[in-house]
């Protein structure tokens, strides 16, 4: 492989290092036009729908004040942030408090995926080497990727601001809200620029950047729970800066300056790190394995687990910590009942309120596990694109056995992570003494989401088997399902639309009256779709690497 060494770096300075960036940007726009259009339309439509739906659901000031009383709950603070303007809950404040965090996470993920896709992923696939063989500067690919992120974020911000204003919200708050989203996207795009210099593989680079996003969420949630309006800990998170714009309440844009400064600092770090590594390599090189594999790795299942165990372990640790910390918030639920008796009336008692809180947290963490499951399975596409699949199929391993092993390991790991979620939440809740619900109930509650996740994975298997280039469409279904699961009740989405989201059919546990019919139907559908996907994989060609 042709490499560009650090010793050659001094020869490529100034404009030479960015040569060809304009051409690469045009090519990237053409390549991603459909993907970016879907992302842009989804986020802009979500803003518009949220305003219209919330206005219809809560038409009067009295209705909105009832809703405002719920926004101080620990679950609401964790999911959306510390509420602002709750004393006079206007429509703008409601939109900003309850929808901003969801959009921030979506924009951050969009930026991370875009940067990794056009930098580390292209180096991993070898296309970057072909591009760099032409008149392309050393930093041109990274600059192009971030410029694409900046362009998309600006377009989304402009359209989102226009939609918010068109729905009747004031210009200042709308502009601040849209700018907060754009700056958050820039911050995590810059984070991805740095992780792409550190890691050698695209999956690792994405994982590190998403881990940074997860840490930012935990820090923001912990800070917001400590103090109404945000504590000093809230200001340690880029997500907290965006929420601190306090759009439509007492709008201020100066917190976004912190995001811009962090973006510039991260880009400078990324440029420094990028000048110190070889093309195709990361600063942290993976350890070479032994020349001969152990006998225990001589099966497709063992190989698949070997490839997954690192990310699975990291996810297990993060989910365990997050579940335990989240569970400890149940203690605040009991205190909240004393402060807001109307919640006890609405939810039927303190015991049930704790169960409702736990059920919501189980579902939220299960959505995160579903993201892991899809990312884990989509590794098969990478194996095929890099030519490693052809080597495996050249042995006595059949296609259905190889694909079955990958699906089995994905679902087995998913079940293990759900088990971690159940145990972690029980430990957190039990430590507060606010609930006597047994451990088994929490474990069953978490595993109850396995059929929903299996259905999403089965859809990915169908796409991979019959239409591998369209595998990304499953991520769209996952994104919608996540929004419907977490915000479906708030937005009062139509029943037929909620029925398209697998998580809405999972049993709502812990709690009374949970039904397993939906889970059973999803399990049957998952098995059927899995068989269809394997059949397609047996029929299609497998490109050589």
Outline the structure in words.
There is one protein chain. The protein has 545 residues and is mostly helical. It has helices at 21-57, 61-70, 74-80, 91-118, 120-125, 127-132, 140-166, 171-198, 202-226, 238-243, 255-274, 300-328, 330-339, 341-347, 350-377, 379-385, 388-393, 399-432, 439-447, 450-466, 473-491, 495-498, 517-539. Helix 1 (21-57) runs parallel beside helix 7 and helix 12 runs parallel beside helix 18 (399-432). It starts with 20 loop residues before the first helix and ends in a 6-residue tail after the last helix.
> How many extended strands?
0
Radius of gyration: 24 Å
Q: Percent of residues in beta strands?
A: under 5%
Shape: globular
Let me know the largest β-sheet. none
Uncertain segments are 1-12
Kindly state the percentage of residues in helix. Answer: over 70%
Gap between N and C termini: 15 Å
Summarize the structure.
By secondary structure, the chain is mainly α. Helices cover 72% and strands 0% of the residues. It contains 23 helices and no strands.
Topology:
Blueprint: H1 21-57, H2 61-70, H3 74-80, H4 91-118, H5 120-125, H6 127-132, H7 140-166, H8 171-198, H9 202-226, H10 238-243, H11 255-274, H12 300-328, H13 330-339, H14 341-347, H15 350-377, H16 379-385, H17 388-393, H18 399-432, H19 439-447, H20 450-466, H21 473-491, H22 495-498, H23 517-539
Helix pairs in contact: 1-4, 1-7, 3-9, 4-7, 4-8, 4-9, 7-8, 8-9, 8-11, 12-15, 12-18, 13-14, 13-15, 15-18, 15-20, 15-21, 18-19, 18-20, 18-23, 20-21, 20-23
